[in-house]
Structures are given as structure tokens and as C-alpha cells.
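input
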Amino acid sequence: MSSPSAHGIRRILTGALGAAAAVAVTVGLAAPPASAADPEYVALGDSMASGPLIPNITGNVGCGRSTHNYAHELATRLGAELHDVTCSGAETKHMTASQSLSVAGVSTGTAPPQFDALTADTTLVTLTIGGNDAGLVGIAQDCANLDPTATPCKDRYTEGGVDQVAQRVDAVGPRLAAVLDGIHQRSPKARVLVTGYGLYVKPGGCWPLQPVLPVDADYLQGNVHRLNGVIAAQARAHNAEYVDVETPSAGHDACQSATVKWVEGYVPVNPAAPLHPNQRGEANYARIIADHLG
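output
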């Protein structure tokens, strides 16, 4: 029997994601209300922050927002009043523009601009954004390969000596700068923390457990690292604090065992979306952020 193609892998993962999200909505639970005296915390960001397919879902199912994402875990640690508007698929533009949502091709409505959650009384903001602007998940799916003799996808993305992915990553910088300035304008009293993205695959990868060739594993994680550098630089330049979650993730990447990994691989073994943090990862991100807050 021939091995499935990269296209086949992408199709299987996309179908699994939509089906699981549809099931997850039936067991959705709302976060418990906080008291009026609690600090006002707004969580902004994409699927790394929203926690798709981690039970239990809250809000529009199209956002894939979990009651066990890092925002909910952090709010519990801090005793904060949480306004979580993180949403799968969000880009920097969705801070000020509405986002169309769907599950398995079926519309679930729209999410309002995430900045709508910010007020003058907001005292803490966390932000995770930029991965979708650069298209990193789609690139990772495109690089899936079960043929060890195949040409690395890195060759295609760096053809002619131009690194197309690096260009996409660098282009996130000005967009993130505008987002950070917009947060400060709307919530001048808020302490603003910006996270990077985690360690998805160890150096050299672990083919075929995770179906990317060793050179492509390093290329993909290298661009995640590059994006983290862009995020850190913009945080420093725009009165925000960068929280590194990549370094503490060492030994917890998708190549590790089910009880150790913080992120899932191409085929999840814990409840989570492919190539996204699982509940253990979200809980540890919350711990890392809480430690940063002191």
C-alpha cells in the first residue's frame, strides 16, 4: 500500500479538526463569573492562546476557545476577572476588524474585533498573535512528507536564494507594532504581556513520528524562533513585555511521549488541534506567564 501524500495528511487533519470541534460544542461550559473587585484581564490572540479542541469549549465554536487555555488558567491563578476573546485563525487585522468563523465549512457567524474587549479599566492584557499572519501552520502542513528520499520543502521556500517564509515572518513586525500601540491607546493603565510561540519539534525532528524531514523540521522551528525574535523586538519597542515560552518548552515538543509533550503533532494523541498546544501546554504557559508577572 502506498503512503498517504502530504495533501492527504492535510485533508485528514482538517476533517478531524472540524468534526472534533462540532462534538466539543455539545459539552461546552462557561467560565465561572468573577467578582467586581478582581483585576480586569483581557486575553487577545489566535489559536495558540484559544486552545482549540481542549475541553471544554466556551463561546463561538468557530473560535475553538477552551476553558483550559492559558488565559483561563492564568486568571484562576491571579483571581482576575477574565475577558477572553482569543480566537482560532485570528490575525493582527482581527484586533480591529471582525472575523468570519466556520467549522468544517459551515459558518458559525462572526467574532467582533478583539479590541472591543479593551476598556480604560483594563489592567492586564496578554497577546499571542502573528503566526497566522506568517501562515506558519499552513507551511508546516505543506511540509509533511512520508518519503525520506523526497526533496525538502525548504528548497522550495528558499528557491533563488530568497527565503519566502522569513519574509512573511519579518512582515509581522509593523503589524504587531500597530496592535501594541492600539492596546495602549485603549487601555493606558494595562500591563501588556506578549507571548512568543512554543517549541514544536526538537532539533532534527523525529521523522517518521512527525512526518517532516530533519532539514525541514529545523527550517520550520527556525522560523518559529525567528517570529519569536520579531515579537520580542516589537514588545521592547512598544512598551510591552515579552514572555518566552519557547525556551522552557525544551523536552516537551511534539516528538515526546503523550504524557510529556506540551504541543501535539500532525496526529494528536491528546485532546487538542494538530500542531497546537494541549492542555498541559496551556497550563504550563499560564505558569510561565504567572512567574513573569511575579
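quick obs: The CA atoms of residues 151 and 278 lie 31 Å apart.
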